[in-house]
Write a structure and sequence with these properties.
single chain, 545 residues, alpha+beta, Arc Repressor Mutant, subunit A, Beta-Lactamase, 6-stranded antiparallel β-sheet, 48% helix, binds P-hydroxybenzoic acid
Length: 545
């Protein structure tokens, strides 16, 4: 068939970088690992960097959170996290054990939701991780519905155990399981309606799983409760959790049906809302010339637009691509196993999550913001910090110092009074009116330097001004000689979750010049951080440090 070469090569690069240890690589290593020409790798990387899916750091490239968008579209379309996430949270609380939700993916089992409560040292899987069906609790539930081709693929894969680490990098290698043994587990799963994992992944780790069906009666996913032999045997875990899991199955199936119905009737949903409707690859091509692989960019745009089953026309419309272009991309993605043809439409397959999702979804807040802050420091030659509001104080959650002789004694965890700091003022500015008034009234502001504003009415006016302007500037109110400029950072829901600032010395020059030099890079950095936060928090809560 007529495969779109650059798209195929771009996905090959992303797969190599999604393997363990690959999330940050030198271009020469990337060329070696993919077997692609160095000039091809250069062009693929330039394109992926332009799209924001990779970023360059020193002489290496690294996976970046916007690469989660295709996976986010898949997860939105499959409906499972939205429908089952809340129930899984509740069950994890109730059992005080980890609860996960996984979907069938070929002869594997791929995680789409993880609520982790793991106390003993054991593997914790990430969203997007893939397990072999024979090594986990959900596997037999899914294998019960395999057709002949699927079973043949499983048998063939088992026949070459040396390739196991390459297929399933998330699990420690073990000798292959006997086919008869797995068949017995499948038969038992069918007869009893649940399945277990008695330390098939690693010693101590046990799990029980129940199937959750979609409206057509097929097993859409499995909910697992995961424990450890220090707390349970498989029998006692089953006894403690199965009755409740069974009680909740009806509600989970109803929730899934509801989410899927909303998704279909609403037409193109989340993806279309973010699509611009005009092909952005064309503009990029004009800017970057031959280094930009238009068909790779378009293929990834198509993948991001597939939030459920979409017809060719819907995909063309929501991406702004010509039908023929969208069709070639879809057929290439189908050929590579990321998309499946259903009726008159196409839908994304769980394999989309293999593209960096597990690594990126496990990044912590500090890891997400740090590279952006380092870039801000490089551009401004000033120290950058992030803080959250904590009572009447701000608490530093990330910091990148500029290398200067004079540096302020601040580290992650440092607390300062909110009223006297630029970050405090933008954070206060995000509060509802009544709450702001209460905080200012209770803050008991004191003069820290001769310039500190302490009058509550005046502070209220300053905070209001910060809200209007979208930034706050503090000139020697916290410390003689210290100026700082801060902007708010919002999460995917538009809520201000933190503030970002740069601090500078009063001797740097007139206030207007300082503002003119620092505000643009600061605002730009905040919006890049926000884009990353949007990608990593789609449908999930962000855990702030
Ligand atoms: C997990 O969610 O970590 C998990 C699920 C099923 C298993 C093992 C681990 O069989």
């Amino acid at each position: 068939m007529d495969v779109v070469g650059p798209l195929e090569r771009g996905l090959a690069v992303l797969r190599v970088m999604s393997a363990p240890g690959g999330h940050r690589m030198r271009l020469s290593d990337l060329a070696r690992a993919t077997g692609l020409a160095r000039s091809t790798v250069d062009r693929v990387v330039a394109t992926l960097v332009h799209l924001g899916h990779l970023r360059e750091i020193d002489r290496e490239v690294e996976l970046a959170p916007p690469l989660m968008e295709p996976g986010n579209a898949y997860l939105a379309g499959c409906g499972v996290p939205a429908a089952l996430g809340p129930v899984a949270e509740r069950l994890a609380d109730e059992f005080d054990e980890s609860v996960s939700v996984a979907v069938p993916d070929g002869d594997g089992v791929r995680f789409v939701t993880q609520i982790t409560r793991r106390r003993t040292m054991s593997l914790a899987f990430r969203i997007g991780d893939l397990l072999p069906a024979e090594r986990c609790a959900p596997g037999p539930l899914f294998a019960a519905e395999w057709d002949e081709d699927a079973r043949a693929a499983w048998l063939a894969r088992r026949a070459s155990p040396e390739r196991l680490p390459e297929h399933f990098p998330a699990v420690p290698a073990r000798p292959p399981v006997e086919a008869e043994e797995f068949d017995r587990r499948v038969a038992r799963a069918v007869a009893e309606g649940w399945s277990a994992d008695d330390q098939l992944i690693e010693p101590g780790l046990i799990a029980v799983a129940v199937p959750v069906r979609d409206p057509s009666g097929r097993t859409a996913c499995a909910v697992s409760v995961v424990s450890h032999t220090s707390r349970h045997t498989v029998a006692s875990l089953a006894e403690a959790t199965l009755p409740r899991l069974r009680e909740e199955t009806g509600a989970m199936e109803a929730a899934l049906a509801r989410v899927l119905a909303e998704h279909t009737s609403g037409g193109p949903g989340a993806a279309a809302a973010t699509a611009v409707g005009a092909d952005p690859a064309r503009t990029a091509k004009r800017e970057l010339g031959p280094e930009f692989l238009q068909s790779l960019a378009r293929g990834l745009t198509v993948l991001c637009a597939l939030d459920g089953t979409r017809s060719l026309s819907e995909v063309a419309e929501s991406t702004g691509l010509a039908r023929a272009t969208a069709r070639r991309a879809l057929l290439t993605l189908e050929h590579l196993g990321y998309v499946e043809h259903v009726g008159r439409g196409f839908r994304p397959l769980p394999r989309v999550l293999e593209l960096g999702y597990a690594h990126l979804s496990s990044l912590g807040f500090a890891e997400i913001v740090q590279p952006h802050m380092a870039d801000l420091v490089r551009r401004t030659h000033e120290s950058a910090s992030m803080a959250v509001l904590d009572g009447d104080e701000i608490r530093y959650v990330a910091r990148v110092p500029a290398y200067k002789i004079m540096s302020v004694d601040i580290t992650v965890g440092t607390r300062l009074p909110a009223y006297a700091t630029s970050m405090g003022r933008v954070l206060l500015a995000s509060l509802p009116h009544a709450e702001l008034a209460a905080r200012l009234a209770g803050a008991d502001p004191r003069a820290i330097t001769g310039r500190t504003v302490t009058d509550p009415a005046e502070l209220a006016k300053i905070v209001e001004g910060a809200a209007e302007r979208g930034h706050a500037f503090v000139d020697e109110e916290l410390e003689e000689g210290l100026r700082s400029l801060a902007v708010p950072v919002r999460d995917g829901a538009g809520q201000v979750v933190a503030a970002l600032n740069v601090a500078t010395h009063a001797a740097r020059g007139p206030v207007e010049e300082t503002l003119a030099a620092l505000l643009p890079p600061l605002t730009e950095t905040a919006s890049r951080i926000e884009a990353d936060l949007r990608a990593v928090t789609r449908g999930r809560r962000l855990r702030l440090p």
